[in-house]
């Protein structure tokens, strides 16, 4: 058994993840956000979620301070948003496809949008695990889920019977 | 906007997640384990992962006490294991498809197996967020990733160009 970085990376390349976009409003009033492949449900009662981020992320200073985030669950129609929110931070909110939602949060159209209050930030080395409680939300168009695997976006396919 | 349980559940039904099986050895020496759809990478350097569980889970008393877990990243060939490790806890280790790995951990064949040391357990209401550091691992056969969506197992499909 080899405890090396290549093995860790290759193991996670073989894994798949759902795709979300998490946004917030900075203390200076600017919209910030990023694409996450770590969003997970923690509990339904009360409705809790977790997501992970690096302390070096451009959005971290805002997530470290803010009370609220908007969590966008993405479908296949939202793949351009997923790509944009993972690229140059200066270009993420230049379009007119978002509007101001509850608590001033920037909200994009998505198959699901959850408004959440941050309950806990756990620092771990140069990263943080964020726990948030869902307090509001809307459903958009029903879409096939967006899935990330092998550094590419795709979707879900049922297994053959 | 409706902050209700149905909306939260419907939003996550529209989401997809990778599938893993997490195992450990209880203080009494028994193998324990469960299927998780919350496993996420936290960092590559050092190699860290997170997963979530309910404090009511049959495996929690072991995860609360043990130092090490085996994290199995599942592919489509492992779907029967995913189903079994999500069903009756008394039947999960009755087969002969597992063996003892590092630290006495029960290890199943899977497309990726990571041996990890638990670094942190964050209680949140009736749940826990677990942070673990990967210290060892093996790769199995290359497989298409197992994906969970709409209460069913499936896999990844690329988007059409």
Radius of gyration of chain A: 16 Å
Termini separation of chain A comes to 35 Å
Low-confidence stretches of chain A: none
Number of strands of chain A: 12
Share in β-strands of chain A: 35-45%
Question: How can the largest sheet of chain A be summarized?
Answer: 7 strands, antiparallel
Count of separate DSSP helical elements of chain A: 3
Average of per-residue pLDDT values of chain A: 96
Task: Please identify the structural class of chain A as seen in this structure.
Answer: mainly beta
Strand order of the largest sheet of chain A: 3-2-6-9-10-5-4
Helical coverage of chain A, percent range:
10-25%
Tell me, what's the shape of chain A?
A: globular
How do the helices and strands follow one another from N- to C-terminus of chain A? HEEEEEHEHEEEEEE
Structural notes for this entry:
- 2 copies of one chain form a homodimer.
- The first copy, chain A, is mainly beta and 161 residues long.
- The first copy, chain A, has 3 helices and 12 strands, in the order H-E-E-E-E-E-H-E-H-E-E-E-E-E-E.
- The first copy, chain A, has helices spanning 5-13, 60-65, 79-84; strands at 17-18, 20-25, 31-36, 40-43, 48-54, 68-73, 99-100, 106-107, 112-124, 127-139, 147-149, 152-158.
- A 7-stranded antiparallel β-sheet of chain A has the order 3-2-6-9-10-5-4. A 3-stranded antiparallel β-sheet of chain A has the order 1-11-12, with no helix packed on it.
- Chain A is globular, with a radius of gyration of 16 Å.
- The first copy, chain A, starts with a helix and ends with a strand.
- The interface between A and B is large, with 71 and 71 residues.
- Strand 12 (152-158) of chain A pairs antiparallel with strand 12 of chain B, so a sheet runs across the interface.
